[in-house]
Design the sequence.
């Protein structure tokens, strides 16, 4: 077990569906509430620090889903995604304060500017890339001002608030923490000025180091400091060979035509710098998926957003995560397919290597479990 300070490890609630394989209906699981609740409850009892619920037109609403799941959990924090342009800052502030009070201070907010103009247009957001970040900057200015004692008067190009004030304070002061990810210059500027935690998708450590340093320097110029988080998938097994075999199984139903079609559509539809960086890691090719030691880009062949996974034994993956921790990452938001079983696998194998809590306790002692399977009855 490592003697370094533990990372804060979060999990993911798959509100757009789950499954054992990518790119096929075989082994697929719909995103019904009972299953999403089970994933979150498992994360809670296993000792994950929180869960991310994403946003998008193919996801269940994160705020309604999170509010419904929260009463079934005890310690878990909820990192709920929101898009600045779909509600006013004041409405988001009231909603956030209510969720935070009801859950006893377990809300975190992931501000998502958005990457797909076609999808955003369905939500009534038609601004080009640079203007969306300008709108996000105005949104965060107002949102943070609403939680100050004096409130806020602000007239911007996209948003305004006159005499705005949040009258029902949250548990966390001055407001629930703000998380944000954006790899463009505009995104980094917004993060440096406003947010508490900056998120990056899993990229090779050298790329992550450069990005974090840019955010760190610009935040310092604002007289601020930010925390850093890493969003990545995990494929952890008892040995490296078993983990790599599991990675190959995950994409075993993908054919080249499907990969090409997905990559073409994504290149046409997305204007995200972060998404472009993810796609460039593999270029749509199966023969160049290990883009850094144990960093595998196979998931990104068809999945939008973060497309990389750390693959290996618990010892190997822990060592790779420590490399990111050395760069300044303090929180890792992980996921795996399928999310319910992989939550247990990660907790049982990886947590001890990272010094996170204690391994989950079985319902019966280990010797009794062995005895029951050997003799058909529990040992006396």
Sequence:
């Amino acid at each position: 077990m490592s003697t370094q300070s533990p990372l804060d490890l979060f999990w993911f609630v798959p509100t757009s569906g789950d499954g054992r394989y990518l790119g096929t209906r075989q082994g697929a699981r719909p995103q019904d509430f009972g299953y999403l609740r089970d994933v979150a409850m498992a994360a809670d009892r296993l000792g994950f620090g929180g869960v991310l619920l994403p946003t998008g037109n193919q996801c269940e609403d994160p705020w309604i889903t999170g509010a419904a799941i929260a009463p079934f959990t005890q310690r878990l924090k909820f990192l709920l995604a929101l898009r600045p342009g779909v509600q006013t800052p004041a409405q988001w502030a009231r909603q956030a304060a209510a969720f935070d009070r009801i859950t006893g201070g377990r809300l975190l907010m992931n501000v998502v500017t958005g990457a797909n103009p076609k999808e955003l247009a369905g939500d009534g957001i038609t601004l080009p890339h640079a203007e969306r970040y300008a709108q996000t900057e105005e949104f965060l200015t107002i949102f943070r001002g609403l939680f100050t004692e004096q409130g806020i008067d602000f007239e911007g190009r996209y948003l305004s608030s006159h005499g705005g004030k949040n009258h029902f304070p949250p548990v966390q002061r001055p407001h629930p923490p703000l998380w944000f990810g954006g790899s463009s210059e505009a995104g980094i500027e917004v993060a440096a000025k406003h947010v508490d935690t900056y998120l990056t998708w899993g990229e090779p450590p050298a790329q992550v180091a450069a990005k974090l340093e840019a955010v760190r320097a610009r935040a310092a110029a604002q007289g601020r400091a930010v925390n850093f988080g890493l969003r990545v998938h995990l494929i952890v097994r008892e040995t490296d060979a078993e983990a790599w075999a599991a990675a190959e199984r995950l994409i075993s139903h993908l054919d080249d035509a499907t990969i090409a079609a997905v990559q073409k559509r994504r290149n046409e539809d997305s204007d995200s710098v972060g998404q472009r960086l993810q796609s460039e890691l593999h270029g749509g090719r199966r023969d160049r998926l290990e883009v850094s030691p144990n960093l595998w880009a196979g998931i990104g062949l068809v999945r939008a957003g973060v497309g990389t996974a750390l693959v290996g034994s618990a010892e190997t993956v822990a060592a790779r995560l420590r490399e990111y921790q050395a760069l300044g990452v303090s929180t890792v938001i992980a996921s795996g397919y399928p999310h319910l079983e992989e939550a247990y696998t990660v907790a049982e194998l990886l947590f001890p290597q990272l010094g996170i809590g204690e391994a989950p306790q079985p319902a019966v002692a280990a010797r009794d479990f062995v005895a029951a399977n050997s003799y058909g009855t529990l040992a006396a």
In short: The chain has one domain: 8-375.
